Amino acid sequence: MTTKPTVLKDSVLKFLKLDSLIENFTGYVEARIELTKIEVKEDLAKGLAKVAVFMLMGAVLTLFVILMSIAIALLIGKSIGTFGGFGVVAGFYLLLGLLLYSFRNPITEKLQEQLIQIMKKKKE
Questions:
Q1: What is the rounded CA–CA span in Å between residue 100 and residue 79?
Q2: Total structural domains in the chain?
Q3: Which residues contact 86 (CB under 8 A, 6 or more apart)?
Q4: What is the pLDDT of residue 13?
């Protein structure tokens, strides 16, 4: 009994020439899905590569700041004492941290706006 409706359905589809249209449409949908998968993988790879480069740059910059801070502290320490030089540099970083903390909301909003603009450009 299950073969009769299938045979009838197949014969109607062939009569209306819809069987090839359905096959073509199915193939098109499958191809679009595969293309989307490939595009997502490419975008993910590009994003991960950028993150890796930024992390490496951040590590190098951090190392630079630490070494320069030590050098400046030792230079200041020659005139006011070793611990005084490190205290001045530490005070500078404390002041910088307090400024960043007090202006965190405007900084966050500005970064969000810039990221939104970058994302809009990528979609176009």
A1: 30
A2: 1
A3: 73, 77
A4: 61
